[in-house]
Design brief:
about 200 residues; 7-stranded mixed β-sheet; globular
């Protein structure tokens, strides 16, 4: 079972040869953790996303300047949005895809694993040091990878609104890097779809 259809991928080098296309780079930062919610539910992994100025969820990053190296451009954007340097290398690249919501835009997705102490420093810097905090970025958000009663946790998170293909990027990365099993992802998407269809009756 597929969790969600993903845009058709394109080779990174091939995408850079396309004439008249812009490029946007985003990254999923994550770390392992032994923390437990309420001392009972294992959190297992810290995965960061952000609440954007338009109320949509997305990953840190943004547009790369013309002729700017992709990884350098992403690192520059992270400095503005996170308030600290987070080195990104070509080895962190996962996939490149044409943007589903914007013609002539190629999105490049990266995943970088960090230590728990490092990712907590990112969260602190994003609030206290980032120039974009409260403007283009409303705040960093941890993705709950666990399941609670009545669709709480990951299903509820997936029922929210995401920018462009960031939801499919999240689902693919969680599966590819072994953070959530395919069975759990399928169940989370199923419950998220049910939550979206549920009437808001009090």
């Amino acid at each position: 079972m597929a969790t969600q259809s993903s845009p058709t991928s394109i080779g990174k080098e091939e995408s850079l040869s396309l004439v008249g296309h812009r490029h946007a780079c985003h990254v999923m930062l994550y770390a392992d953790t032994k923390a437990k919610l309420f001392g009972r539910t294992p959190i297992k992994h810290i995965v960061l996303m952000q609440m954007r100025f338009d109320g949509l969820l997305g990953f840190p990053g943004g547009l790369v300047e013309p002729k700017e190296n992709l990884e350098a451009g992403l690192s520059r954007e992270l400095g503005e949005e996170l308030g600290m340097a987070v080195p990104i290398t070509p080895q962190d690249h996962v996939v490149s895809c044409p943007a589903s919501s914007c013609p002539n835009l190629i999105t490049h997705f990266y995943v970088k694993k960090m230590e728990e102490s490092e990712i907590k420093e990112v969260e602190r810097a994003a609030v206290t040091m980032a120039t974009d905090h409260g403007l283009e970025v409303m705040g960093m958000v941890r993705v709950p990878l666990y399941f609670l009663k009545n669709g709480g946790g990951l299903p509820s998170f997936l029922s929210h609104s995401f920018i462009s293909n960031s939801r499919s990027q999240l689902l693919s990365a969680l599966q590819q890097f072994g953070l959530v099993s395919q069975r759990e992802l399928d169940e989370a998407v199923r419950q998220a779809d049910q939550l979206r269809q549920r009437p808001n009756a009090e």
